[in-house]
Every structure is written in C-alpha cells, then in structure tokens.
Amino acid sequence: MKILLVNPPHHRLQQMGYSYFPLGLGYLASALRANGFTVAIYNAEHETQRVQVGGWEHKIRYRQDDKYHMALEDPGHYVWREVEQVLKDYNPSIVGISSATVTYRSALKIASIAKNLNPMLPVVMGGPHPTVVPEDVLREPNIDFVVIGEGEETLVELVNMLAQGEREFQHIDGLAFKRGGRVFINQPRAFIQNLDNLGFPARDLDLFESSYQPNVIGGHLIASRGCAYNCSFCSSKAIWGRKVRRNSPGHVVKEMWEMVNRYGTYHFNFNDDEFMANRKWLIELCENIIETGLSSLVTWRANARVNHVDSEILKIMKKAGCIMLEFGIESGSDRILKEMNKGITVEQAQSACRLVREAGIHVHAYFMAGIPQETLEDLQLTMRLMQKIGADTIMFTIFSPFPGTQLYDYAIAKGLLTPDTDMSLYSMFRRNNCLSHNIDREDYERMIYAMEELSDKINSRTMMRFSWRWRLHHKRLWRDPSLYSDILIWGAKKMVPRALVWKSDDKRVEVHSPRKGY
After folding, report:
1. Contacts 24+ apart (CB under 8 A), 341-347
2. Per-residue model confidence as pLDDT tens digits over 268-295
3. Domain residues of the chain, as ranges?
4. Given this structure, which CATH class describes domain 211-476?
5. N or C: which terminus of the chain carries fewer CB neighbours within 10 A?
6. Which pTM value belongs to this model?
7. pLDDT, tens only, 383-392
C-alpha cells in the first residue's frame, strides 16, 4: 500500500517565492515508514520551476493575494497540472492532505483532482482547519476521513485498517469519518507524551528532496508541541493543547547535527509556539549546542515571548548561535493586549527588545491590526510602538478570524461574520479585512496603509544597512587584497568540521564530524 502525503500550495500560487519543508507531514511519513508502509511526501507549496516571484512589500503582497484566488479558479494553472501528474506517476493507494484555514480551498482542489483520477481513492485530511471544523470538512464530497489533532498514531491505525480491508473506523481515537451520509466523530486521542519516540521528520521521503536549498529542507525544526497561553486570535491550543511537551535537548541537537551532515544546513528556525518558556530546558539545549561544537557551525532563530527574556539567558543563547528572536508584540495598546489575552504589556515588550539588542541579537517583531474591539486610538498607539520599539524587521498583518479561536466566536456573536463565511479566502495582507466595528472604514484603511508603509520602510532600512555593510566590505577587500586570506581561513574553519557526504553505488556514505557530536 502506497501513501502520498500532500502539502497544498498557497504562497506558490501567489508567486511569493517562499518555500519550506512541511514538518508535520515529515513526522507522519516517519511514523508510517516505521510501521512498514511505503510513503512519499509531495510538497506542492515548493516551487520546482523557474518562475518570476514578487517582492515582500505590502503593496505587492496585496496584489499577489488576488493571484491565489484566480489560481483556485484556473484548472489549467501549471501547479494543478503538476499535482495531477504527480498523482498519476506515484499512483497512491491513499492520499493524505494537510490543511490550515488559508490553504483549505487549495487542499480541496487537490482532493478533487485525486478523486477525478480515481473515485475510489481514500482521501484523508488533517491539520489545523479540519481539526477545529471536522464536520464541515466531511460535508465535502471528496473528503472521506479527518484526522483530528496530533495525527501520527491515528493515521497509522487508519492506514492499517484500510490495508486489511476492515471498516471499524469507530474504534480509532482522533478520527472523524462519514458513512451513509452521516458524519461520525470519535473520541479524542491522548497526546503523545514522549516526543523523542517519534524520531525525526522523514525529509528524505520528499519527492523533490534534492531541489531544496540546505536551509529550507533542513533548517526548520519543532522542538515542542503545545502552548500554555491562551491568545484569543490563535488556534494552537485546539490542536496541541495547553500543556507543553518537549523533545529532550539531546534529541534536538542530534536532529541539528543530522541536518548539518546530510544537507549542509547552517541556519535553523525553531518554529515552536513558546521556545523560551522552560528556562532549564533552554539552558540545557544551549549547553548541548556549545559542547558538541555545533555553535561554531550554525546560527539559529526562534519565536519568543517578551516576558521570558532576561540578560542571563540571552547571553548563553547568543553564545550558542542565536542571531534573532521573534516577538509577537501585536499591539501598542495595553487594552487591546488584554482583549487578545496576550499576557504581556507594552512596557515588557519595550524592555525585552532593548535587552535583546544589547545582547547583540536581532529583533523581529510581529504586529497586528483589525481585531473587532480595536479603536482608532489603539491603532495609533500600535503605530507609535512600531516606530520606537527598535526592531530590525517587522511583520505587520491584518487580523484574520480563524475557526477555533475566541475572536472568531466573538465576531460571529457580534454579527461581524456569519457561520458560512468562507474564512479560507481571508488573508493577513488584505486591507478589506475590516472587522473593527469601532472605526470608520475610511479611517481604518488610511491607518492600515500608513502602518504598512512604516513596516516596509523599517524593513527596507535594515536591508539597506546590511547591503551597505557588504559594499563597504568589498571596498576594503579591493584596497587590501590580503583580507581575502582571512576570509579563506574563516571559511575553512567553518567547513572542515562539517560531515562530508557523497553517494557511492546508490548508497549514501557519511564521514561524520571529527568534533564531539553526532
């Protein structure tokens, strides 16, 4: 039995040029392989062709969002042709599709293509969106099963049952299915407590593994699941729960070493919801990175909360290779932060950013506008904080009310949305996402435009600063060619410890780093 796990396209249809390896599908593929099944990952979000991509400025992103909607309606789009060809070539016995709310329409398109090729093909959908609205998803004619929440054990049991020709689906915890026109939702599955037992994501099972850049296929990690906080705009707790479970520090470092050895990865992104919450765990992780020599080979960045930062922990993180922390500050209004259940204050945000900059670590800040309770004064406070927080880069987005969040329920209760509103067509970059019922529409759009301009200006200034550093560096090299030897020596020190990887007789041969490590 062959299983194909598919990550649907979104940014690719917008021509954003953004690529990543779908870690969730990687873990599912690893679990299926460990149980004896043939499985492959098809990341339809990953661009395999040479196409013109757009920029990062808001005015461009706004236009590119329309391209996504147009692509959904274009059956001849080259991405859908590629999807159909991959399905034909791989000829799977089961198709599994991961879906967030923003990719839901794209995921349904893939399910439709799969069913057109083989109407009897079982199609399973999982991910954030199906987890919070499984009944809605199963009303779609091309979806047969929904995996709710953490999917490794549920999917393995389902595939085992399908392989044996059995249909006692009601016995599989964490599964929703339909039979005779009715939708059945089984009892929830208990969370996996020892995440180390899951192993590493099966990146090698990606059909286009060789086409990724080293920091794309190997550079994204998740070292924990769950978030103890309760932000009103976030659905994480509906998927992972509010109890945080973590991989052991040794397991995380092993995975980092494997990425260095296999792909030559030299920069990592920790995509955890709250990376710094467990101080003891974080210190042990940093010490492992330093002691194994990894800190001299790689850099990394992570999401963090402003109330978890202090000078002592930043010092060891910097030593372990951390070059950037990303803070979800969201608003410059303490009142709105309370409405969001953020559990932070503006003063804490300013203090944290100052400490991080003093530690020599870059700051990336997330800001959001457009939540229903917001006023014009709140937006003005947010814009002022964006100006003075001192972040190197800023991601400014428009609030999108996703199912499974408190603010989505609030918007429904206030009549700002209806239950049948297609939330998959909302975007974090569309100014017409106006749910702030306390603000005049023209004033809202004027403020959003000004905040977008400010965000782009800050990001451009940072990019120019690094660009000028590079130009000045070249001028120094032109005046003093001996500096090239310093660069060569530095490069040799960086490269020699890395594992040498090559193929011989179709077998991968690895010569591991001489450093103490994995």
Report:
1. 341/229, 341/230, 341/231, 341/232, 341/406, 342/229, 342/231, 343/229, 343/230, 343/305, 343/307, 344/305, 344/306, 344/307, 346/381, 346/385
2. 999 999 899 999 999 999 999 999 999 9
3. 2-185, 211-476
4. alpha beta
5. N
6. 0.87
7. 999 999 999 9
